Amino acid sequence: MAGAYDDRDGQIWMDGQMTPWREANVHILTHALHYASSVFEGERAYNGKIFKSREHSERLKRSAQMIDFEIPWTIDEIEAAKVEVLARSGLKDAYVRAIAWRGAGEDMGVASARNPVRLAIAAWEWGAYYGDAKTKGAKLDISKWKRPSPETIPSHAKAAGLYMICTMSKHAAEAKGCSDAMMFDYRGYVAEATGANIFFVKDGEVHTPDPDCFLNGITRQTVIGMLKDRQVKVHERHIMPEELESFEQCWLTGTAAEVTPVGKIGDYNFEVGSLTREISDSYEKLVRT
To answer: Which residues contact 60 (CB under 8 A, 6 or more apart)?
Structure first.
């Protein structure tokens, strides 16, 4: 399946029923389109099974609550819908997108408590997020935008509005020939990439930013568990920009990114070393078991 995302064959689950792909539409006065009242999940299926599916569904519900709405479907109902979508798609390896939003209703201003909450789930083929970076190492720009303080946004929600600066950062990076951009947080600490968490290696130990103002990714948590199982020391801490020069290896984690080595961030270079390759290979085996 290829082409524009609004012009494909197949079906999308919307509000409890399967809908022909091209008919899965919303009204132009949908609240989420104007005010970003939307949360979503990106998930991957391997060999016909969504990796950590329930954890994603639980986070979807939590994210909605963080931005002040309740998804009117239970975790079990969301799980059943994802299974149906994947089965109808005919795909074994797929990307699954669940999205919940405030729809069109009686309110069309900042407030939207009277508008219905809607839910949709789609699945499609999606290969490596960073192309051939899994072998060569991704090249990252350094974004001018910073992850905001938790006092200004619900930073632990996977909410659409939080990705605006990520989109701008990634566009700027791609214009420079990079795959993505690394972002600092509002204090100047290393934070994450635009849609993935980041890890560094130094002297056989791993360092990763403390996710106190950005999403603590499900893949991030999985990889930390894998490292600890291998008795690799993991430091979750604030990382200063000047430390980048001292790190030997670097990789990104995320549902879309999986485990992707990084070869360069701005002027800093990293080797695609043995630990990076080991974790990448082990993650690939884990998601397919």
So the answer is: 39, 40, 41, 71, 78, 98, 100, 158
Per-position pLDDT tens, the chain of length 289: 578 999 999 999 999 999 999 999 999 999 999 999 999 999 999 999 999 999 999 999 999 999 999 999 999 999 999 999 999 999 999 999 999 999 999 999 999 999 999 999 999 998 877 877 777 899 999 999 999 999 999 999 999 999 999 999 999 999 999 999 999 999 999 999 999 999 999 999 999 999 999 999 999 999 999 999 999 999 999 999 999 999 999 999 999 999 999 999 999 999 999 999 999 999 999 999 8
Q: Does 229 lie in the same domain as 199?
A: yes
Over its C-alpha atoms, the chain yields an Rg (Å, rounded) of 19
Whole-structure pTM over 0.85, yes or no?
yes
On whether both 175 and 265 belong to a single domain, the answer is yes
Q: Would you call 158 a catalytic residue per the annotation?
A: yes
Given 158, 170, 176, 202, the catalytic residue: 158
- Which sign does the torsion angle of CA 120, 126, 129, 134 carry? positive
Q: Is residue 66 part of a domain?
A: yes
